[in-house]
Amino acid sequence: MKNKILMGLAAIAMVAVLASCGKKPQVEIDATNAAIAAAQTAEANVYLPAEFAALQDSMNAINNAITVVDGKLFKNYKDVVAKLATTKTLAEQVVANAAVKKDEIKKEAETLLTGIKTVVAENAKLLPKLPRGKEGAAVIEAIKADLGTVDATVAEAQGLFDKGAYMDALNKIKAANEKAGSINTEIKDVLKKARIRF
């Protein structure tokens, strides 16, 4: 009888120990989710989309692992806790990397904005020098329309830059820069052929 009581107590103690190992790591889950949210706030999804997607994939895998463990009689979250720690550390690194990348994009956009304004000013200065002739007037009007589009894009890019949307500003300014450069080359080619100094 005494042995049965001791065996029963031992079994209860064993279940208690296993149950204590099986406590869901909510603190770690919350901390990891907060680190991923911080990465989103740092615009990692914009400046480091691949790394941010990897973070989300990692958290989805962890959530799936938690669901599997939740369905077991004897729960053991040891592997989940390790994965949470790794993902949290990775999220913190992504936050730091996003800040660096954002700064790089800002500087690149700033440089391109300054450069394109110089090209736009030069285009405006060279435009009146173009020969008018029969076909010249139509060509000049087409170039003016293109320059108007470039000016509008530059203004839009500047507005995005001023709002802090550096990636969007950079994408706009790259397209405008290509167009402005192409117009500049076209104007200079026409002036060279007409032997007009510029």
Overall description:
With 198 residues, the chain is an all-alpha fold. The protein has helices at residues 2-21, 26-41, 44-47, 49-70, 78-126, 134-163, 166-193. The protein folds into two domains: 2-100; 103-193, no CATH class. Helices cover 85% and strands 0% of the residues. Helix 2 (26-41) runs parallel beside helix 5 (78-126).
List keywords for this structure.
single chain; mainly alpha; 85% helix; rod-shaped
Overall radius of gyration:
31 Å
Distance between the termini: 111 Å
Strand % is under 5%
H and E string = HHHHHHH
Total DSSP helices: 7
How many domains? 2
- Could you name the ranges where pLDDT drops below 50 across 5 or more consecutive residues? 13-20
Query: What's the shape?
Result: rod-shaped
How much helical structure, as a percent, in the residues? Answer: over 70%
Mean pLDDT: 88
Task: Determine the structural class based on helices, strands and strand pairing.
Answer: mainly alpha
Give the biggest beta sheet: none
Total beta-strand segments: 0
Topology:
Blueprint: H1 2-21, H2 26-41, H3 44-47, H4 49-70, H5 78-126, H6 134-163, H7 166-193
Helix pairs in contact: 2-4, 2-5, 4-5, 5-6, 5-7, 6-7
In short:
By secondary structure, the protein is an all-alpha fold.
